[in-house]
Write a structure and sequence with these properties.
The complex is a heterotrimer of chains A (281), B (334) and C (328). By secondary structure, chain A is an all-alpha fold. Helices cover 72% and strands 0% of the residues of chain A. Chain A contains 13 helices and no strands. The radius of gyration of chain A is 22 Å and the shape is elongated. Chain B has an 8-stranded mixed sheet, with helices on both faces. A 4-stranded antiparallel sheet of chain B has the order 2-1-4-5, with helices on one face. The longest helix of chain B has 18 residues. Helices cover 31% and strands 23% of the residues of chain B. Chain B has 334 residues and is an alpha/beta fold. Chain B is built from 10 helices and 12 strands. Chain C is α/β, with parallel strands linked by helices and 328 residues long. Chain C is built from 11 helices and 12 strands. An 8-stranded mixed sheet of chain C has the order 6-7-8-3-9-10-12-11, with helices on both faces. A 4-stranded antiparallel sheet of chain C has the order 2-1-4-5, with helices on one face. In chain C, a hairpin with a 5-residue loop joins strand 1 and strand 2. The chains are: A mainly alpha (281), B alpha/beta (334), C alpha/beta (328). Chains in contact: A-B, A-C, B-C. At the B-C interface, helix 6, helix 7 and helix 9 of B face helix 6, helix 7, helix 8, helix 9 and helix 10 of C.
């Protein structure tokens, strides 16, 4: 109702959504947008940008532009899937912890706090390095493991305070099941926070994935913006003056991160009008 | 006694994107030095907005639409913010409902008291500690609590600390907006008694705003009843209790069951106050009034008129009031 | 003493609590024990309104939450319809209990879920307890709304809580409590957040429903005058103990316990004479983590005797149905 209108009025959301949707479009129709196959190695290696190869070619003679277009798929997929998985994990844990309280809460809180104090980057590197297989799913798993705790941490006190609201007590006294109370009475109040949290971790995932791929902890034969950067670095793109090979995937990663950050901020503002400054009391 | 505060045709309210809420509508009253004025009304009647306006603490989106507020003949609405800050706490001070939450939880009470005193004037510069102890004695808290942190004090004590801070610079007026609402009956009574005693000792005036009419009747000199942003009746509090003239006041007076005596069925006032974001035609109480006169009350807005000595009322039931209101109404519409 | 509390006038007892205690434990390492309710005996009979009066921290709200089974008591027994409740209830038993014991909340702004139209609040209990056939649910909701003074019902059903005034919301809250046709309604300060001019109407509605539906109330309040207005009996609570219990008129007009007397003097009473009474109201409510062994009111009591410090006084019968916990 109200939220839908606010959604479209908000410039941050509009910009963020435009970027994100464009990338989703590119990812879905990569086959038609990319001029060549991303795997084809028959072009002259290390060519500068030209009409034939907008972003030049790689050391193994692949078209960089086609690789960038195809790479959108994996970067987006990792971002969105990690967002989804972390959200599901953090919502479930926060609900159980916040609603039932007591010992369950103590155990889950301890668990959350442990994951919060572990520095994510080293853990990610260690996990990724020792994983038996490499590839997208490994990376998703690694980032999810290191990234879910923050969401649970922010959601838990919300659930706890909602649980103490009179309408929840009323539900309990009416005789509602815990299931109904949690999912129908409490959860809808936290939707905004959950959505904001989704975009927050998705942004974190996009950047982490690029980082992991860049230092070669992913499968270097996958095509993603991170691996493009890895190869650019590996094959000394800078030395050959092939700026576009490095710059374009870098900018795209930043852009995708920005779009998700914008959505995160905007949703945050909608659910918490105080952040918007003096307007509305 | 001299008039200390004069409020003339004050209108104030809130402006949101495209809605204007007229929370205080054309309110005028005088306050003598040392007078205890109670202002009572239901939630949303504009009584808090009035308190904010008088103390110049009405923040955006709140706005003063018009009128004058004279303190000792000086119009404080025309003063700049810095000038107001100079006289605030010296001429008048404020105690709000949530005041006790204003205390900083990680600072000792005494530091907060010193801060307040130093910030607003240096008069007590060297004798800060003595002054703080003195103030605590005024409000009946043992000075040993100066070294305590806020969480070590009960709600009633915190509220008394805030009152002590308000007293620090010997103001001539203290505006209290529901200072006791969150407190228990026994504590409430105790604080009110203390305020009354201090007022008689130091001679400051008090504007006490609350929705709890029954306490006010006992303690205040003068009582003003607000409804939908207007003062609809004002008189000596005993007079207003024994002889309420406005049907709303009458209804309010009968809304609290007596503590003693036989139990009998009483009735409140049906309906609810009008929406202040819309224009109100005629009397604002018309919809809920049991004595309304169709064709009269829904057309003519009654003016606050002195019906008996010192007893003001705004109701078309009274000939004098109706007469003046019609003239006013005709003049206004011209 | 328990048998003394059994009252001889033949009416049926709906609810009784015996030696009810609730101790809250705060903190994990440095534990603090908050003695909120300290052995309360109280009963409510059919179609009776019992007011539980006390200041904040007296344990009155905790009492309501124990009886509504939001809290589990530390010790003590609860009887409903003369049957003792087990400490742990099975789901079906609990559901049956919830049907019979309902609650009205203090804050009408937070007791209705802001995301759903107000109809939802009344519809749920009917559905949960299967109290109407599917095609009759709507009619039953309308009937309840109108019974609670929200007429015509179809003007209110689809509105959201924020579109209603405080008084109207509280009526919805009452309709929700009434939906299961309960025997006992726990009313936790149902009027304290409402405007003065609306309070009486809500209390009148509760009294009307008592006559019509034969429901009993445990009316929790800090307002002695309000308690006197609605209640048949008044119980005065202080620091988790009941200090005095008896018929309303007697407790108000002839209070026996010094604390009741203090409450009475502190209560606003504009109708009493011209000179406002000066009340000597010293002292603070005792710390519930650190209760005295003797009478909890002793430090503030004007009539305290040495023995008050040593032992909690027993309940003494001072009149028909009228008991006082005081040595005087």
């Amino acid at each position: 109702m109200n939220y839908v209108r606010m959604f479209f009025k908000d410039k941050k959301i509009l910009v963020g959504a435009t970027i994100l949707l464009t990338m989703v479009f590119v990812a879905i129709f990569a086959r038609y947008i990319a001029p060549y196959s991303p795997h084809y190695m028959g072009f002259t290696p290390l060519e500068s940008p030209s009409f034939k190869h907008i972003l030049g070619t790689t050391a193994t003679g692949q078209d960089v532009f086609s690789r960038v277009i195809w790479g959108t798929r994996m970067s987006l997929a990792v971002g969105l899937l990690v967002g989804l998985f972390t959200t599901v994990i953090s919502v479930i844990l926060a609900l159980i912890s916040g609603y039932f309280g007591g010992i369950v809460d103590n155990v889950i809180s301890l668990f959350i706090n442990v994951f919060l104090v572990i520095p994510p980057l080293p853990l990610m590197i260690v996990l990724a390095a020792y994983m038996p297989s490499r590839g997208m799913w490994t990376i998703i798993l690694v980032i999810t493991v290191t990234g879910w705790a923050w969401g649970a941490r922010t959601l838990r006190p919300q659930i706890m305070s909602l649980k103490n609201r009179d309408f929840v007590k009323a539900s309990i006294i009416v005789g509602e099941s815990s299931f109904h109370t949690i999912f129908i009475d409490i959860l809808p109040h936290t939707l905004g926070l959950i959505v904001a949290n989704f975009f927050g971790t998705a942004m974190y995932a996009v950047i982490s994935e690029a980082g992991l791929e860049f230092i070669g902890l992913g499968n270097v034969n996958d095509i993603s913006w991170g691996t493009i950067l890895y190869w650019a670095e590996n094959d000394q793109a800078m030395f050959f003056g092939l700026w576009s090979w490095l710059l374009v995937p870098g900018i795209l990663i930043a852009l995708l991160g920005t779009s998700m950050a914008l959505m995160n901020f905007a949703v945050d503002e909608i659910i918490n009008p105080k952040l918007k400054g003096e307007k509305n009391g | 006694m001299a008039k200390f505060l004069q409020v003339k045709n004050l209108s104030a309210g809130y402006k949101f994107n495209n809605v204007t809420v007229q929370a205080v509508r054309n309110v005028s009253f005088d306050l003598k030095e040392g007078e205890f004025l109670g202002i009572a009304g239901e939630s949303g009647c504009g009584k808090s907005t009035l308190a904010f306006a008088i103390t110049r603490t009405l923040l955006s989106p709140g706005k003063i639409f018009g009128g004058q507020i004279l303190i000792n003949g000086k119009d404080i609405l025309s003063l700049k913010e810095e000038e107001v800050r100079k006289i605030r706490w010296k001429e008048f001070s404020i105690v709000f409902q949530a005041s006790m939450n204003v205390l900083n939880p990680v600072m000792k009470i005494k530091e907060q008291m010193y801060d307040a005193i130093i910030y607003h004037g240096h008069e007590y510069g060297k004798n800060l500690k003595k002054r703080a102890e003195e103030l605590f004695e005024f409000v009946n808290i043992s000075p040993k609590y100066l070294d305590a942190y806020p969480h070590q004090l009960s709600g009633g004590m915190k509220q008394r600390v805030v009152i002590a801070i308000a007293l620090a610079l010997n103001p001539k007026l203290i505006v209290m907006d529901e200072p006791t609402t969150a407190l228990d009956v026994v504590v409430q009574r105790r604080i009110l008694q203390e305020v009354d005693r201090l007022r008689k000792t130091f001679g400051f005036a008090v504007i006490f705003i609350t929705h709890d009419l029954s306490l006010l009747v006992e303690i205040s000199d003068t009582l003003a009843i607000m409804y939908a942003g207007e003062i609809i009746e004002k008189a000596n509090s005993r007079e207003i209790f024994s002889n309420p003239l406005h049907p709303y006041t009458f209804g309010l007076m009968n809304s609290f069951p007596p503590l003693m005596g036989k139990r009998k069925r009483l009735h409140g006032i049906a309906g609810h106050p009008p929406d202040l974001s819309k224009q109100i035609k005629g009397c604002s109480f018309f919809e809920r009034c049991s004595k309304r006169i169709n064709g009269k009350c829904d057309v003519i807005e009654p003016k606050l008129v002195e019906i008996e000595r010192g007893h003001f009322v705004a109701c078309n039931l009274y000939a004098k009031c109706y007469k003046e209101s019609t003239e006013y109404g005709i003049r206004a519409s011209n | 003493m328990e048998s003394e509390l059994q009252i001889e006038n033949g009416t049926v007892e709906v609810m009784r609590v015996k030696k009810l205690k609730k101790i809250f434990v705060i903190g994990t390492i440095k534990k603090k024990y908050i003695h909120a309710v300290n052995g309360v005996d109280l009963d409510v009979k059919q179609q009776e309104v019992v007011a539980l009066v006390g200041e904040s921290g007296s344990g009155k709200t905790t009492m309501a939450r124990i009886i509504s089974r939001l809290y589990v008591p530390t010790s003590g027994e609860i009887y409903l319809d003369q049957k003792k409740l087990p400490r742990k209830m099975r789901k079906s038993e609990l559901l049956k209990y919830r049907k019979k014991v309902q609650m009205i909340f203090q804050d009408p702004f937070s007791s209705l879920n802001p995301l759903y139209p107000v109809k939802y609040a009344v519809e749920r209990p009917i559905k949960v307890h299967k109290l109407a056939r599917k095609d009759e649910i709507e009619d039953r909701i309308s009937e309840l709304f109108e019974e609670c003074g929200l007429t015509p019902a179809n003007q209110f059903l689809k509105r959201y809580p924020y579109e209603l005034s405080g008084g109207q919301r509280q009526r919805v809250g009452i309709a929700r409590a009434l939906a299961t046709k309960p025997e006992l309604i726990l009313a936790d300060e149902p009027t304290s957040m409402l405007d003065v001019s609306i309070r009486l109407d809500i209390m009148n509605l509760m009294l009307d429903l008592k006559e019509k539906e034969g429901v009993s109330y445990l009316f929790i309040t800090h307002d002695l005058a309000g308690a006197h207005y609605v209640a048949d009996r008044i119980a005065i609570m202080y620091a988790g103990h009941i200090m005095e219990v008896g018929p309303s008129d007697e407790v108000i007009n002839d209070p026996k316990h010094p604390y009741t007397q203090l409450l009475k003097r502190a209560a606003p009473k504009p109708e009493a004479g011209l000179e406002p009474e000066k009340v000597d109201v010293g002292g603070e409510v005792p710390d519930l983590a650190n209760l005295p062994i003797g009478c909890p009111f002793e430090p503030r009591c004007l009539f305290a005797k040495p023995e008050c410090k040593e032992k909690l006084p027993d309940m003494v019968k001072v009149g028909k149905d009228h008991f006082v916990r005081c040595v005087l």
